[in-house]
Design goal:
The two termini are about 25 Å apart. It contains nine helices and twelve strands. By secondary structure, it is of the alpha/beta class. About 40% of the residues are buried. It has an eight-stranded mixed β-sheet with strand order 6-7-8-3-9-10-12-11, sandwiched between helices. It has a four-stranded antiparallel β-sheet with strand order 2-1-4-5, with helices on one face. The structure holds adenosine-5'-diphosphate, iron/sulfur cluster and magnesium ion. Adenosine-5'-diphosphate binds next to strand 1, strand 2 and helix 1.
């Protein structure tokens, strides 16, 4: 782990142990993130993006749990850490997350100030008065007027609520912030404003950001690195300029083609369905949908193959 690496994930596996079988939601994922770096995590719904996000706080909803691998944060392996230690040392302090849809889960009966003050009181032992002061300090940094501490969630627009969620993720000065589909429920203009805010905060707070989205078109402008996830695995990983300019994995190629363009008529899409993660196929997980599939693909699972410039692709075409 080099000095400027804030997060290192090795062979991470996260499974849901359901009555209907074991869902292999994240299966052998490895990557690392440097200080101040922004990484995108893209892929169709159900490919394991949120599960990977939760696992980086070791906060996977039951019946899920980390089945193997390591997550190093500041040299500590949080994949194998006790609940008490995670709470004391890691969650919100080292890594925080803006959960998918959380802005709609703000408690309607409490003011914004009270809801934002709570984590500071619990995790930092502040008094209510101290916590509210800190909240008022941080609100302008996400473009909100401090007077909203006295407002209730229903008095705020969707964009404002999402800014509150982002502010909450920043309250305890984490090194890494994960934003899970932070713009999905918002209209296009507000989407752009929230993405700009994330970009600015990254610079101002020096945080590393993991932006999760099923929508590739919003990634291109924000992230430096991108991981394309398919059926619980990274299909491709690299600098986003390289990946967008010259996608290597057939799945990435399909995804990029299916971004709607004003200049083109008709929509491309990738035919077929991702595999059932309770029982993924033996070889390449994309084989049933891949236009380039050949014998070996169905027999053996492709490893992550390293290409030039920190680029990785999991496809036999690049062996
Ligand atoms: N609580 C859960 N119990 C069982 N399976 C789950 C649970 N949460 C997610 N999954 C399954 O794990 C896989 C990955 O889900 P998720 O991480 O939510 O994907 P994404 O965020 O990319 O849409 C899916 O197959 C989903 O059905
Ligand atoms: S390994 Fe084979 S099936 Fe999988 S993406 Fe590459 S060519 Fe297609
Ligand atoms: Mg999700």
């Amino acid at each position: 782990m080099t000095n400027d690496t804030v997060l290192k994930v090795e062979d991470l596996r996260v499974y849901y142990y359901t009555f209907a079988g074991v869902v292999k939601a994240v299966d052998n994922v490895s990557f690392d993130l440097k200080k101040g770096e922004t990484m995108g995590l893209a892929g169709e719904s159900g490919c394991g993006k949120s599960t990977l996000g939760y696992s980086l706080l070791n906060l996977i909803p039951p019946p899920g749990r980390i089945a193997g691998g390591h997550i190093y944060v500041d040299g500590l392996d949080i994949a194998n850490m006790s609940e008490g230690e995670l709470r004391r040392k890691v969650r919100w302090k080292k890594i925080s997350m803006v959960f998918q849809g959380a802005m709609n889960a703000l408690t309607p009966v409490y003011t914004i100030g009270k809801q934002m003050a709570e984590p500071l009181m619990i995790h930092n032992g502040m008094t209510y008065k101290e916590a509210i002061e800190k909240v008022k300090e941080i609100l302008p940094k996400v473009g909100l007027d401090p007077v909203i501490v006295n407002r209730y969630p229903h008095e705020l627009s969707g964009g404002m609520k999402q800014r509150v969620m982002i502010a909450m993720a920043l309250l305890l000065n984490p090194d890494v912030v994960i934003a899970d589909e932070p713009t999905t429920a918002l209209d296009v203009i507000v989407q752009a404003q929230i993405l700009n805010l994330l970009k600015t905060l990254r610079k101002e707070f020096g945080i590393s950001l993991i932006l999760i989205s099923h929508d590739l078109s919003i990634m291109a402008e924000v992230v430096e690195k991108i991981a394309i996830m398919y059926a619980g695995k990274f299909a491709e990983y690299g600098y986003s300029d390289d990946v967008f300019r010259d996608p290597k994995h057939p799945y990435t190629q399909g995804l990029i083609k299916s971004i709607p363009k004003l200049t083109e008529k008709g929509l491309h899409y990738i035919p077929g369905q991702p595999p059932d993660l309770r029982n993924p196929p033996a070889g390449c997980r994309f084989a049933d949908r891949c236009p380039f599939v050949f014998d070996k693909c169905r027999r053996e699972e492709p490893p992550m193959i390293k290409l030039e410039n920190n680029r990785y692709v999991s496809c036999w075409l690049y062996e």
